[in-house]
Design a protein that fits this description.
The chain is α+β, with helices and mostly antiparallel strands and 248 residues long. It has 2 domains: 77 residues, no CATH class; 134 residues, no CATH class. Helix content is 42%, strand content 11%. The chain has 9 helices and 7 strands; from the N terminus they run H-E-E-H-H-H-E-E-E-H-H-H-H-E-H-E. Strands 3-4-5 form a 3-stranded antiparallel β-sheet. Strands 1-2 form a two-stranded antiparallel sheet. Strands 6-7 form a two-stranded antiparallel ribbon. Strand 4 and strand 5 form a beta hairpin. The protein is globular and about 85 Å long.
Amino acid sequence: MIQRKLRKEMAVCVIFLLVLYGMWAAGLIHKDRLYSKWEKRLLAQKPEYDFGAVLDGSYESAYEEWLTDQFPARDGWVGIRTRCELSLGKKEIDGVYLGKDGYLFSDHTETADWDRLEVLMTEQYGEEKVSRIHVPVAGAVLTEKVPYLVTFPSFEDDVWENLYRHRDEYIYYRTDHHWTMRGAWYAYEAWAKERGISPVSLDLMEQSVLKEDFLGTHYSRLHYAEQPDLMELYDPGVECSVVYDLGE
């Protein structure tokens, strides 16, 4: 009986060591990735050894970040971790909340001082040429689909009210923090009416499907989704151009 127990414990130890050294060996031959298409970000690269950085602790932090980002089969392990946490009944994983009907929510953090930018733009171009839309996060509009006791801040203006009136429609993606083109149109409709402009009707736009299996930023953080999203295009037939600053 004792020998059988010892053999079982030895087998567990051997399996554990094989997995551990197997992952270590895979890490040695695994070529570092520069970019993660799922997470849509650049991945940490192996830091160069620097004695000064070792002393102040920054080298250790950078090395740990590199190990985390470049871990072999990292995307698959993230998905496994998510499913394990789901089996424990968790409704919030890595800042993403799991709502009803497959919706994933997060509280988007502002990355720019939009109030200051609006003031500067108004000073430069004049109040009549500057207009701003406050984009509500999905959780502030689709309140019935948000997990119990979770709330999201909302700027309850005309745009929010119009989106809220149409909350039963497909106005936000399930796996992403953006609104769909239908949601964007309802925001545009509210903005146009507020500015005294007649909005272009949805019926006058050519509607087409761009992608039937779209997986957005929330999916990239969890590697989990109940179902992919449908990405549609509403084309008004008017030529336009858009400038993306990208922080430059």
